[in-house]
From TrEMBL:
UniProt keyword Transmembrane present: yes
PROSITE patterns (alphabetical): HIS_KIN (PS50109), PAS (PS50112)
Keywords, ordered alphabetically: ATP-binding, Kinase, Membrane, Nucleotide-binding, Phosphoprotein, Transferase, Transmembrane, Transmembrane helix, Two-component regulatory system
Ranges of residues in domain PAS: 174-247
GO molecular function, one term: ATP binding
InterPro entries for this protein: HATPase_C_sf (IPR036890), HATPase_dom (IPR003594), His_kinase_dom (IPR005467), HisK_dim/P_dom (IPR003661), HisK_dim/P_sf (IPR036097), PAS (IPR000014), PAS-like_dom_sf (IPR035965), PAS_fold (IPR013767)
Entry protein name: Histidine kinase
All residue ranges annotated as the Histidine kinase domain in the record: 327-559
Membrane-spanning residues: 12-28, 40-57, 77-103, 110-127, 139-160
Organism placement in taxonomy: unclassified sequences, metagenomes, ecological metagenomes
Pfam families: HATPase_c, HisKA, PAS
Amino acid sequence: MAEPLTRKKTVFLIRLAVIVITSYFIILSPSTGKQWGNYGYIFIAAYLLTNLIVAYIPDRYFYDDKIFYGFILSDSILLPAGIYVSGYIGSELYLMFFFIISLTTMSSNFGYLMINTLFYSFVYGWLLYQRGLLTGPDAISYLIQIPFIIIIAVFYGFLITTRLKDKDIRIIEARERYEKIVQATDVLMCIVDYDGKFLFANQKLVKFYGYQDENNLLGLTISKLYNEDEAETEKTLNYVRSVYKNNETVHYESYDKNHGKWFAHTLSPIRDPSTSDVFEVCIISKDITDIMEKEQKLNETVELLRRTRDQLIQKDKMAALGRMASSIAHEIRNPLEIIYMGVDDLENNLPPDNQQIQDSIEKIIKAADRADNIIKNVLSFARQSSYKITRIPLYPLLNNVLALAEKTIQKNGIIVQRNYGNDSLEVAGDNNMLEQVFLNLVNNAIDAMKESKEKKLTVRAYKQLVTDIGYKTGPLPDDFFSIGHEMIVVEISDTGKGIAKEDMTKIFEPFFTTKPANEGTGLGLSIAHMIMDRLIGTIDVESTENKGTTFFVKLQPKIKTTNTAGV
């Protein structure tokens, strides 16, 4: 099978045909006198020389715009010069030549151009015939004008249509290249109109939303992607219309509830080149779920570090305050003993029938008892009490605590829900200390629900695998709980008034209380926190105002030793 002609060979052969026809045209022209004869031969030789130069130009240059338009320019100069040398400058041929040039520049289809050229060549030949120029001795010189016109049309038509084809190929290649880029990108991309109808969607978006191909999506509205979620659809449409209105790019983030993913959206205007008005909007959606999850984890880590810092500061404050409180408590107890002795002496020596005096003595005794109770709590807080960690059955301990608080629970009309079974679940701790911690939390829960409509106390106990790093939880040697190990968790929840957000960091501080002046010393939770440190456990809290509070007591399932010096 013969190889197809290259562009270089095609140009060479067409130019050669033009040169041959032009040469015959000049030689046989009846208008060429002796004064133009030599110039005609020089012209033919120069034209042939240009085609010889073409033969030696590498083929790749014929795809260069400058070379191609150079041919057009040079031949546009040489061909009128040939007509001038032939003596037809004032004839209809000259006009026919420029008419054919105009016709080729306006034609985008070579076939249609040749049909037009043949038609006008026939008309031109008929005019020559009507004038009697196609008969007689000079007929051949006029007859050759018709193939001249045709070959000129072929030559210029080839140049023009070839350039148009080159541009079409480049446009197609550019479109295919951008199509590949759009389809290969890792983002969801689509183009919508003012009403949110899809005009284009890349395969990533089509497959993500479960469609077979782009045609199934085109013509549908954005609401189809959000499963008729009116709020999300309206929000997206508002952003699209904002781009139309302001002619500016818009950025926003949203959460896709159906797929559980976060997206960062960029809405860019597609403008009409002539008016710069927006006629379409391109939406690019990038999956940022991983970034959002990492950001959330970072925020949680920062919060954990803050809580750990606060707890460490609290621990140091408690140790220092404990030492100071012990000294102060001893100093206060001595004058308090004198007050007790004085009140006892007054009670024995004053007449018992004076009710006013007896009421005063009773108030003094109550105040002294309260002061003595505070001193005992302070000493309990400050003193390194002796204790022994053993394996303790948890459920009997919790039942005993609820039995101790039963009267107060019934008095306040509180419903108790026990979410733990009868299976044996043991913890490492001191029975008296854990009883004190749980009883304190139960009493606090009862106090918190005094004004609540719903009064429900829930006690849960369960095993839990340690998976997250937290206060005294992690890979360090001093951590109480190690990742991958088990812990025992006791939850004590109430439906009370909750704890104010600004108070959450203070509740374990000594002497901090939100109770009325005569109802609490503010040492209960501080002592509970101290006890949990000694038992190699932790105590945490979660609370929502006007909904309730939950304390999490985390205990060791087995006896464990750790570096707790100075606790």
